[in-house]
Design brief:
The strands form three sheets. This protein has a three-stranded antiparallel β-sheet, with helices on one face. The chain has a three-stranded mixed β-sheet with strand order 6-7-8, covered by helices on one side. It contains 14 helices and eight strands. The radius of gyration is 50 Å and the shape is flat. The chain folds into five domains: 17-151; 162-206; 209-315, 2-Layer Sandwich (Ribosomal Protein S8, Chain: A, domain 1); 318-440, Orthogonal Bundle (Hypothetical protein af1432), CATH 1.10.3210; 445-517, GMP Synthetase, Chain A, domain 3 (2-Layer Sandwich). The longest helix has 152 residues, at 3-154. The chain is mostly helical.
Amino acid sequence: MTADDFKLVDERERLLAEAQQLAATRQKLAEELQKLQGERLQLQKERGELYRTAERQAAEFRKHQEALAAERSRLDEERARLYEQARSYVEAFREEARIRREELAQAETALQRRERELEQRLRLVRAEEARILALGTANTERAELLKEELSRLAGISRHEAREDLRRHLLEEVKRDYADQLRKMTERVKEEADIRAAQILVTAMQRLASDVVQTLPLAVVRLPSEDYKARIIGKDGRNIRTFESVTGVNLELEESSDTVVISSHDPLRRERARLCLEELVADGRIQPNRIEAIYERVTRKLDRELFEEGERAVQEFGFTDMNKEIVRVLGSLKLRDSMGQNVLEHLKECARLARMVAEELQIDPTAATRGALLHDLGKGLRHVHQGSHASVGAWFARRHGESEAVCHAIEAHHNEVEPRTVDAVIVQVVDHLSGGRPGARNGGSRDHYLRRLEDLERICREHRGVRDAYAFQGGHEIRVIVDPYTVDDTGAILLAQELVKDIESEGLFPNNVRVTVIREFRASETSNGRLPQ
């Protein structure tokens, strides 16, 4: 090969290298172009989004401007209306001020005329006073002479005559005062009785409540006779476990598919009923299941009773009441007093107390709260010794109730003398709710009246008793005695004997207040002759 051939070969290799370099550059440029096209598409997309956002914001801006224009127009109209109203008010005020100025000028003129008349009358009065004073001086001297002459003729001194006249005048004034005081007292009592009757009638007319009575037993129906054997268990193991856990007595009726649960404690009775119903529904009646289900229904029932107490206090807006008080209040749903459900009785009393307080135009809070809690001690007799009124007041004080509410609780059976209007209201509504026929005693009206008649009969059988009257649903009986047969000491002893007889008869499970009344009267009649 010649030198030219070598040059051509070198030139070809150089050209090939440049061609490869150009191809690589073109490839790189193609990639850059593709990337730029992608960025352009992205920019176009973003530009479209910006255009749409701008159009949306422009539309919102136009709506906002339109709203502002409408609001500005409304404000202009309102300003014009207020301006016209203010202008009319100003004109009316100016007219009224003009009328008042004219009336004031007329009154001032009349006042000046009245002052002139009074000055003229004052001058006349002063002249008459001077004349009377002169006559009085002359009469005084003459009276002194007459008094001395009268004393000389009567044989007593002037001081003694004055004291005698003063004594007679005082006695006459005292008689007139006593007569007027008696008449005013009678009139006030009559008006108070009429007003009290109106208030109570209004409250009773506004309140219509159901009478809820309970029995000291519960009945559970069984799906079939086979469940009796399951309840009894092998050798009576199940029924013994059930009775020992729940503290109730089970009575299996042979002639029916029912189980009777009896207990003096309504809370135990309800827990046992729920436990037995769940055991029957489950079908597995075993000692361990009995204990587990009893614990579960106990927690569930306690929660339901607490919710019941919350509903009771929320009905009257007492959201600040202590939770312990709410818990005890809810438990009273399962308790009864002489056949009347205690919780329903408390709610009825609270409604009546609020109505009576509103009729008297006083704050109903303390009276309503005291009425709602006045039988709280009936759910606490296992906690503290004493009557349910004293126990309830103690528990309420312990958990933050006001002294007015606690006093109303402890005084609702007159164990403590009521000192406030709220305490008296609680007494009244308690008697209204529990004293009406059929609300308590758990029997018919005839049975209720028969027990009252028996209570009066026991009292009439004692020596010296004229008559006896039962009041307030049998909670109080008043005995009228012969004052010549029974003296004051005998009246005290008679009251104690009557209480013992009533307790031995067992007619009324609650407290009965016995009041023995011994009244002695003496009267004389004047002959009506006038002094000579």
